[in-house]
């Protein structure tokens, strides 16, 4: 097992496995969500993060557990609608906000740790099935150092590299755990419908065929 150094985004299994990358401070089972709330979508602007210090990376399990206990007390379940957020494209440093999400498509957020073996396996399985994922927005999100994220797809999911509907995003300001959800295991998957409402989420490993079904149904 691997203690999480918090980071954000990637999907893989059909049932939670004990081998998933685990945050021991918080344990939760997968769920399907049907209740909805409306949230305003704020607009972001282009911003280059080159030259900025990445002070928001959680450097130890103890730090993560402290952050998790604080945030999870406020939000035990994932938010039912995509909230305003600002992430940054790893390759360009350009900001990417909720206003930049392409309309009329389902949106998948995969919280991941670049060093997590299960996250790598899931990314690889998704890459092998890219032909089934062309019509969804797929975002791998992490709070880890962008230098560790930059080669993630090239190393483990090369079929996803430079695909127009796939991005690796750096969560510099910890927006995901502050606004979306604090997962107990990586990879953690969040499936939002075309209207930005949460359809389902799960944490840890899942069979790739079930993942594809949940992504595309």
UniProtKB/TrEMBL annotation:
Region (Disordered): 29-78
Signal peptide coordinates: 1-25
PROSITE patterns (alphabetical): PROKAR_LIPOPROTEIN (PS51257), THIOREDOXIN_2 (PS51352)
Compositionally biased intervals (Basic and acidic residues): 35-57
GO MF assignments: antioxidant activity; oxidoreductase activity
Keywords per UniProt: Signal
InterPro entries (alphabetical): AhpC/TSA (IPR000866), Thioredoxin-like_sf (IPR036249), Thioredoxin_domain (IPR013766), Thioredoxin_ResA/DsbE_sf (IPR050553)
Biased composition (Polar residues): 62-71
Pfam families assigned: AhpC-TSA (PF00578)
Protein name: Redoxin domain-containing protein
